[in-house]
Design a protein that fits this description.
This protein has 230 residues and is of the alpha/beta class. The chain contains eleven helices and seven strands. It has a seven-stranded mixed beta sheet with strand order 4-3-2-1-5-6-7, with helices on both faces. It binds magnesium ion.
Length: 230
């Protein structure tokens, strides 16, 4: 792996997952755990639908569509809730390093654009590029649109792998950082993988090489070692 990155003659491209990777907590899951209809939460419906998605019985598009539709929430309530979420340590520093070093950074999320924009804005890094599903407020609940769903096989709302394969050029080095099940296809298009939690388990199961990480200071350490201390 390290040989590959030293021999890179194109661009260095860093793709990162959002929920549980850029943020400490999974924002989407936490929001729905809080604002789904009370009777659904009492019945354990949310856990059931997530397990159903993980088992491959429903797509993430279906999962998100139901979660949005069955929420009861106003814009003010959502914004207040979003104030509680913080960035994973080292992410702002990684954004700054990438700018200085000319590394292309993009967030790829199968979550929702509204909270990504809100949280990036809160930390003054709204200029970080992202691709995600679209969320809007609708009749006292939420609704989602999936502009990239037809780019992939349909299991994900937003096909992360399509973005990576479309953007990458010959000679580029592709680095992916993620934590979960929604990253399982994207990592197949990466040269270097940083993984934790469910994604690390998946890599181990599939015998894929990866670097474990706790936060973005681990990524920064790798970058400084391989791409210079700029
Ligand atoms: Mg995640």
């Amino acid at each position: 792996m390290s040989k590959k990155c030293l021999k890179q003659d194109g661009e260095i491209r860093l793709f990162v997952d959002f929920d549980g990777t850029v943020t400490v907590k999974d924002v989407g899951n936490s929001i729905f755990d809080r604002f789904l209809r009370p009777e659904l939460l009492e019945q354990g419906w949310h856990n059931e639908i997530i397990e159903s998605w993980k088992a491959g019985n429903i797509s993430s598009r279906e999962c998100l569509t139901y979660e949005c539709e069955y929420s009861i929430i106003t814009e003010k309530e959502l914004n207040t809730e979003l104030e509680k979420f913080g960035l994973t340590p080292g992410f702002v520093e990684t954004v700054q390093y990438c700018k200085r070093r000319g590394i292309h950074l993009m967030i790829l999320s199968d979550g929702l654009d509204y909270y990504i924009e809100y949280i990036l804005g809160k930390y003054g890094i709204s200029d970080v590029e992202y691709r995600a599903n679209h969320m809007f407020f609708h009749n006292g609940s939420l609704a989602a649109e999936f502009p990239f769903v037809d780019k992939g096989c349909g299991r994900c709302g937003n096909c992360k792998r399509w973005h990576m394969d479309t953007i990458r050029q010959d000679g580029d080095v592709i680095i992916y950082v993620g934590d979960g099940f929604s990253d399982r296809y994207a990592i197949r298009s990466a040269d270097i993988i940083f993984a934790k939690h469910d994604l690390a388990d998946y890599c181990n199961k599939e015998s894929l090489n990866f670097f474990p990480f706790n936060n973005f200071f681990d990524i920064l350490r790798y970058f400084r070692q391989h791409y210079g201390n700029v």
